[in-house]
Amino acid sequence: MRRLLRIGLVALLLPALFGCQRQKPVRIEWAEGERAAVAFLGYYDSFGAFSAAPSFIRLSRAFPQIVEADQVEAGAGREIYLVVPRDPQSRLSVYVDDQPGSDEGPRLCHDGEPGAPLLVYGNYYDPDMQVVCRDADGKEVSFVPRVDGRGAVVLTAGGGVRDISLPFPEPMEGYTSFNYADVFEGRDLGIGVCLEAGRPVLTVHAEPLEEIGFAAEEFALAEGRNEFSGINGLCKGVFLGTYGQDYNPVVYVVMENGDLKKCTVFYSVLHGGPELSEPLPDFKDVVGFERVVADGESVCALDARGDRKEVPQFSEYGLFLAQDGEDALEAELTPDWSFVLSRYNPDGSLEEYFTGSFANMERGDGLDRFRFVVNRSLHRVEDFVVDERVRKGRFSAREVGLSYEVTLSGADFFKSGTEFRDSRLVGAEENIEYD
Predict the structure, then answer these.
(1) Fewer beta carbons within 10 angstroms: which end of the chain, N or C?
(2) Computed from CA positions of residues 82, 124, 1, 350, in that sequence, does the dihedral angle turn out positive or negative?
(3) Residue-range domain boundaries for the chain
(4) Would you state the pLDDT for residue 102?
(5) CA proximity to 419, closest of 388, 397, 403
(6) How many helices and strands in the chain, by DSSP H and E?
(7) Which residues contact 266 (CB under 8 A, 6 or more apart)?
């Protein structure tokens, strides 16, 4: 549990709030017998991801209580709700049922101050948190906030609670559900994507994938329904495309503000996804997609101005290694334009790592140049110190034979000009030899 740093946050928010498109604060029209109000804010990977999301300023204008609210992580989850008590003397408490059906029952994980609003985070698989609003005279109402498949907030309270959520984004017509067999001439890969209550859901079935060469023990995804991480907001459209060859499915997701994110399905099958990329640079106000069949499959995004632009792909992904004094460095690049930069101590323990996204700046003659943005870092891993400063830099990938050398520059966490070599050329991952 923690409370936002009010003075500093308000000072930072004011210029942005008054500079953005006007969003009027939501006025709560209380009815008789109601003791609390709830607003569903969207799907986020953390409170830090929420405060960094494009939707944060708009939501903070609609619900000024966000700045003052206590933050409570009620177990694993990606849904964030704002809860506001009606009576300034009422307290909000949160209970979590860690072991349903056990004799211990739900545990108290938060007991707020009188009148304090609440941001509560949970409900990853099933509703597992209960909120109680208790008046000064001891009267209370308890409820379990959750979102149904249509995007409506369900409050299992039998009354006493008001839903003040903003409307869900209107789904893009024709971009809510795709099955690989329906889209690609009947070839069933057991892969589908649909839009459900403002979030994309990926379905994966093992048998068709085994037929094209995947081993069941390699699957990092669960059979059936898989929810994406990296949403950090609400979505209004999905599309299932492919690139480079017939069987390389890619999910494209349009956020409520028109930003474009993507997820390469086969990479996710093998690496624990599905995880959406950061918004792809230079793609705004996306309103549709178009398959292109010329020199291999590709996908173009269409925007509200009528422009048509091919979505870039990154095929030189992999694990690259370098040395900085006694420390070993590692750069992992993914086909979804994300990366992890790690520093290891001489004894092999992880010292710190950085995560972010990158985009192509220039390509040609065997040398590709990219820009990157670090959106989160974790220093001194044993102490778990998280730094969410945004920092930028550049790197290049130079073709060397059948592989690449990656060079970092313009960053404050590695020496500028640090060269990374393809791990496959350095040694096996379990027995790496550094130069």
Answers:
(1) C
(2) negative
(3) 2-163, 177-310, 318-431
(4) 66
(5) 397
(6) 8, 31
(7) 248, 249
Q: Which amino acid is at 390?
A: V
List, for the chain, all residue ranges whose pLDDT scores fall below the cut of 70: 1-22, 75-76, 98-104, 123-128, 151, 156-158, 245-246, 295, 363-364, 366, 375-376, 381, 399-404, 410, 425-435
Listed in sequence order, the DSSP H helices in 191-308 are 206-211, 265-271
In angstroms, the CA 16 to CA 14 distance is 5
Residue with tokens 């307290």: 91
Side-chain-side CA neighbours of 426 within 13 Å: the count stands at 23
Q: Are 209 and 237 in contact (CB under 8 A)?
A: no
Paired tokens of 387 = 């730094």
Residues 138 and 4: beta-carbon distance below 8 Å = no
Positive or negative: CA dihedral 267, 387, 359, 226? positive
Residues 6+ apart with CB under 8 A from 146: 79, 123, 127, 153, 154, 156
Secondary structure E strands in 138-285: 140-143, 145-147, 153-155, 161-163, 177-179, 191-196, 199-204, 224-227, 235-242, 249-255, 260-264
